[in-house]
Amino acid sequence: MAGLWTAVVCASGAVLLAGCGDNTADTAQSQQAATRMGGALTAAVAQRSPWPVWSGLDFPYNEPPLAAAPAVTFGISQLTQSATQTVFSGTHTLPSANVQNYRIGVFLHNDVFYYQADAVVSIAAGGSFTVTLPRSVGAADRAVLILYPSTYNPMSAENCNAAAGTCSGRITTTTKLSLPSDPSVLTAYTAAYFPAATTSANPQIAGLQSLMNTPLIQGGPYGDGRLIRSFRDMDSAFLYDQALAVIAFSQAGDQAHADLILNAMAKLQGASGAWVFSYLTDGEDANAGVDMRIAGSNAWFGMALNAYQKAFASVKYLAMSTRLHNYMLGELIPITVNNTSQKGLRFAPTNYAPGRAGIYALEHQLDAYASMHQYYALNGGSQYLTAANALRSMSESLWNGSRFLAGYDANTQSLNTSERYLDNYSWSVLALGNTGSAGQKFSASLASVCDYFNVAGKLDYPSRKVSGVVGFYDVIYDNVPSSAPFVWSEGSLGAVMAMRQRGGTLTCSGNAAGDILESMNYMVDKLHNMPYATQNGNADFTSSGSVAGTAWLYYANQNKNPYAHF
Fold first, then answer.
1. Averaged pLDDT, 175-201
2. How far apart are CA 384 and CA 329, in angstroms?
3. Residues whose CB falls within 8 Å of the CB of residue 458, separated by 6 or more in sequence, listed in order
4. Considering Cα of 502, then 400, then 485, then 19, what sign does the dihedral take?
5. Exposed/middle/buried for residue 442 (C-beta within 10 Å: 0-12, 13-18, 19+)
6. CB-based burial label for 495 (10 Å; 0-12, 13-18, 19+)
7. Handedness of CA 347, 350, 355, 357 (dihedral sign)
8. Residues facing 457 on adjacent strands
9. Spatial distance between the Cα atoms of 530 and 241, rounded to a whole number of angstroms
10. Is pLDDT of 443 > 70?
11. Please, how many CA atoms are within 13 Å of residue 145, restricted to the half-sphere of its CB?
């Protein structure tokens, strides 16, 4: 989701992906993890993969989009694994006479890249190669293979520690992926992993299941669990994405995978009852030392706990849910908006970034309104209904007669009129309904989503070219449309759902909600994941397969509104 005052929100040093209601990239992960060494690799049953899992030249899983095929083909065509070894087999297009001038290096990645010095490599003049590791590769590991001139030392980069045999990840501008080496110094590179096993016949649920190739988190009050990987190529596990996945699993009746996430999150719940904004996949705080208890993402997790309780008629996690909702009750602060007293949910309880505790984002009010209302419907308690009513009133106070404003800054006692976020149009309708409590026509504002519409979304690979993807981008500043629009899957799918809820004949450039949804389904990769965005020049929007895109695609395809009242 798009956040409020995003440049300030992520001043902790993490790269922003979706605005600080939801996701940031894993820069902080690599900084923390560079000082740690990995333990023994997890043994796995023999597995075979008939396709490349990720390649810088030809990637059938839609991450990342490349402007053009690289000069040298280098890709994995087969992964074979037993309890004692892992073999990567692939092809290259190096000139046969020059094969001896090149080397292949192997890194295994979880929180940091570990150089595999004992890999046995064979590069054949006929255009094939094999890389053999004398061990099995755990499901939580991602292997990166780099092809480089023999004169280059892959451990010489400033992000590497040659003595420890590790390299911290770097997010590259060309790929937006976490890699051990800058692609500019390499001849080619590719990556592979064994995705988690899937059981669901629904493609989006299967896609989410495959993203749970993460370390086991043990010792929680409800048993062992796992977090879901927010992006295919990263070790980020954002709170918002955990919520999205639990909601989707619950709606689909997949209690086992919902339990895994909730078990892990139960262990991570803070003393206050809240969670921090982002974790590593092993459960460590991705922004250690910074109190980032973001209101919106916590409210989404409240919605997830409610969805689970309703779907499975289970109070297993009710104590955890009650602690969270009581925490949010304490975060409702009396303020005055447009000369009217309100109670609003502040962005965070601390100024982890300047002024943060004084900001009241519309999105967070909507999220908490839904969470409180759902919790009350399930469990009663007049204080939760009172809070839900206050949050609705606060949300409606940000309606200016034609659209919702992004939020209110109590530090300056001013409304945010300059930033127009796509989610403020769609999520307000999904949460509050088409009509306000005083008859306001909220759904009428949805015509403005067309201001964000783009008909030129592009996914471009040597093996598969998809162009003309239609959808929406994220934000407009000072009413100036983007000069480089793209298609943002998460936000576009929310807009599709709001357009359908509105009803009528709203179209953008002739495209109705169904047309947009059909187009976006073409973006889905072979592991059933939805890329977060089409090709773009915005470093905040990766093209990796994502929880957010995949979960919202499930909601849209199944017409299941996560904000719905119970």
1. 81
2. 8
3. 65, 466, 467, 468, 469, 534, 535
4. negative
5. buried
6. buried
7. positive
8. 469
9. 13
10. yes
11. 36
Q: What are 76's two structure tokens?
A: 């994995």
Q: Does residue 130 come out as left (phi exceeding 0), alpha (psi in the -120 to 50 range) or beta?
A: beta
CA distance 110 to 40: 12
Closest to 253 measured CA to CA, from 313, 317, 311: 311
Cα-to-chain-centroid distance, residue 450? 24
For 334, 441, 501, the CA distances from 394, given in Å and listed in that order, are 10, 17, 23
Phi and psi at 486, nearest 5°, equal -145, -175
- Please name the residue that has the structure tokens 């849209």: 556
Pairing of strands 278-280, 236-238: antiparallel
Radius of gyration of the chain (CA): 23
pTM above 0.85, yes or no: no
Cβ neighbors of 382 (< 8 A, separation 6 or more) are: none
Structure tokens at 239: 């709170």
For residue 62 the two structure tokens come to: 């839609």
Query: What length does the chain have?
Result: 566
- pLDDT averaged over every residue in the chain: 85
Cβ atoms of residues 137 and 44 within 8 Å: yes
Tokens of 235: 């070790």
In the block, which residue shows the tokens 């899983």?
A: 61
The residues that bridge with 225 in the sheet, in sequence order, are 217
* Structural contact between residues 236 and 278, judged by C-beta atoms closer than 8 angstroms: yes
* Position 12 pLDDT exceeds 50: no
pLDDT score for 39:
29
Question: Helix, strand or coil for residue 560?
Answer: coil
Say if residues 451 and 395 touch (Cβ distance below 8 Å): no
Strand partners, 24: 16
Q: Give the whole-angstrom CA distance, residue 150 versus residue 132.
A: 19
At 110, the pLDDT band (50, 70, 90 cuts) reads low
132, two tokens? 């053999």
Environment class of 166 (CB within 10 Å of its CB; exposed 0-12, middle 13-18, buried 19+): buried
